[in-house]
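The passage that follows is intended for readers who have already worked through the single-chain material. We present the inputs for a multi-component assembly, then the predicted structure in tokenized form, and finally a short commentary. You are encouraged to pause after the input and sketch how you expect the pieces to fit together before reading on.
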Amino acid sequence: MKHIKKRIAKIVDELVTYFFSMGATDISINVKEEKGFFKIILATNYLKKDEEKINKLIKYLKCAKQEEMEEYYWELTGDSDVDEELILVGMMTDEAELDIEEDKIEVKLIRYK
Amino acid sequence: MKINLKKNMPNENNISNNTKFLIITFYAFSLVIFGFLVDTPKEIFYGIYNILMQPDTLITDYIGLGGMGAAFVNSGLLTLIFIYMLYKLKITFNGTTVASLLLIMGFAFFGKNLFNVWFIVIGVYLYAKVQKDKFSKYIYIALFGTALAPMVTEIMFSTVIPIFIRVPLGVLVGIATGFILPPLSSYLLRVHQGFDLYNIGFTAGIIGTGFVSIFKSYGFLPSPRMIWTTGNNVILSVFFFLLFVSMIIVGFVFNNRTFKNVKNIMKYPGRLITDFVILEGFAPTLINMGINGIIATLYILLVNGELNGPTIGGIFTVVGFGAFGKHPRNILPIFLGVYLGSLTKTWYINDPAILLAALFGTALAPIAGEFGWQYGVIAGFIHSSVVLNVGVLHGGLNLYNNGFAAGIVAAILIPIIEAFRKDEI
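Having made your guess, compare it with the prediction:
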């Protein structure tokens, strides 16, 4: 597999773009490389009126890992600001956790090496 | 509220991977049965021999080359082989699986056959091995990439090159093409940002242009063909309407005898990657595919077009991408755009190339889905001109000529539309 770290950067790009579309104004990102996996933690605020987008986030991040889809389509991740590609983020990650509060969200993603 | 998201395939209605493979196998097998109903085994055998032993540049209608029975058997068998391959590789069945298989099914009526596709597949396989990766990760690129299969037969069955050169050269070019496809196909997605559903068509057009330019420098010119059968509308429309109605019925039954979620499918813009099987489930997707098939077949009949190998290919492509981005709401504006073109341009709506432009032009359906039907009409209108002009670049060796043209149209239109959008972040 090529461009391993670029793919991590693309996942972050996609998430940041998506949260901007939810009215985020304060986003913190932490990307950590461990021995067997990459961990991405993104904490952000959002506008309450965009709750429907949270359901979308849950639905897409739940998508199972699919390497054959990733290998072909990963370059699309984070590439457009008119439409989201969150389903690809789901397909490129092994574990996903969301912590949702009134006006804050924390996303934790794990991608095995 | 903390949610630990359990990774799974949402909206599956308990339809297993095996059941999905069985249903698609049934449709591939029905083509073989139909083939043996319309022709004798002997006619089919000689017909397939004719199909395998000739060049396949655009437009080579296999119904004209080998007869209706042979064309259907070629399509059915080739699809069954690829279904088996995907099954053995333990691929998770999704919308891309359907789209890639139905693309094989459709193009096996005018360009892909039981012989010429394997060199591309071997090339992709070798790429995976060189990268020390699993072949299964590149399987969709291999399946879609068979668009360039005519490169192999064009060289191999050339009448101007000595046999001891053309056979190994054909093999080498086919494998080399497959070998360079994975990095290129992924990279070129960014050019059209997923608004051309036939991304490999765009990639294959670029590769084909490069190869043909080199061929020409050595005095070798691919010879475009024009084998286009007529007069089979009655028998073929009966078969295809039955096929597509059966998809709606099977989908309806598996969807707990409802049309639930079908309406949801129509709400997606359809840009890559919009996988209806994952997003809304296999059963409603099957219903959407059936509806798409009926619309595409009706379009051909309404404009007095011909149902034959190439148009069947176009119809199957619309049906296949009914699992991966296309639905009536985003394909109809493309048809309308091509139709409006016929009122003002120098060609007729039922000219062969224009029939294909309408069917395959639905590669641009995401433009209508994302920005509105008006933009879809404009995309269809422009596409019908661009597609007539780009085939010469790859000498008809890229079967997805419309995918190539659609990539160019999307690359031109998207930045302009986005530049004047009001609701950007």
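Commentary: Chain B touches chain A at residues 1-10, 91-92, 94, 96, 131, 133-134, 136-141, 182-183, 185-187, 189-190, 193-194, 269, 271-275, 278-279, 370, 418, 421, 424-425 (CB under 8 Å). The CA atoms of residues 148 and 398 of chain B lie 5 Å apart. How closely did your sketch match?
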